[in-house]
Design brief:
The structure is a single chain. The protein has about 170 residues and is of the alpha+beta class. The protein has helices at about 20-25, 75-85, 135-145, 150-165, and strands spanning about 5-10, 15-20, 30-40, 45-50, 60, 65-70, 95-100, 110-115, 130-135. Strands 6-3-8-7 form a four-stranded mixed beta sheet, covered by helices on one side. Strands 5-4-9 form a three-stranded antiparallel beta sheet. Strands 1-2 form a two-stranded antiparallel sheet. β7 (about 95-100) and β8 (about 110-115) form a beta hairpin. The chain is globular.
């Protein structure tokens, strides 16, 4: 199976080339990603623990679903694809915010979406070790107590979310 190609982008998120995933990560090139926060009707947020086999930030808690844009993909398209692939859900997504690429977002311009669903997620075991629904204040307490348990991009997105919607 050939290695996934990413669009390499500049600081303004304009495509300037394409490179294999491993090279983009090794050289810390700017690229694109999406994160989705899935809430149930009780207002609980689904978070998941990344699989131990992940090449970046294994065993860290993160967003309900997330992933990179493949070369030529758009943010909305990727968000729907990643939700389906990682947690087996589909539905109407609401775009919330786009974060500029930085070391904290793993050099990814990151689009954050949210959706509501009471369907049971089906986790892809290659991506996800486990998933749980939590209250926002519980996540905040855990994050403040031990930030190293959480992926760095999730920390940025979650704190922004609390500031704007919490």
């Amino acid at each position: 199976m050939p290695e996934e190609l990413f669009d390499v982008v500049d600081e303004q998120d304009r495509v300037i080339g394409q490179l294999p995933r491993s090279q983009v990560h090794a050289e810390r090139r700017l690229h694109r990603a999406v994160h989705i926060f899935v809430f149930n009707s009780a207002g609980l947020l689904l978070i998941h623990k990344r699989a131990a086999s992940k090449d970046e930030q294994p065993n860290k808690w993160t967003s309900s679903a997330s992933g990179h844009l493949s070369a030529g993909e758009e943010y909305d398209e990727t968000a729907h694809r990643e939700m389906h692939e990682e947690i087996g859900l589909s539905g109407k997504l609401e775009f919330l915010h786009k974060f500029p690429a930085s070391p904290e977002t793993s050099y990814e311009h990151t689009a954050l979406y949210r959706m509501s669903s009471d369907e049971n997620p089906v986790f892809d075991p290659r991506e996800i070790a486990e998933g749980i629904y939590c209250r926002l204040d519980e996540i905040e307490l855990q994050l403040n107590a031990d930030p190293t348990r959480f992926a760095t991009a999730f920390q940025v997105l979650f704190r922004w979310y609390l500031e704007h919607f919490g």
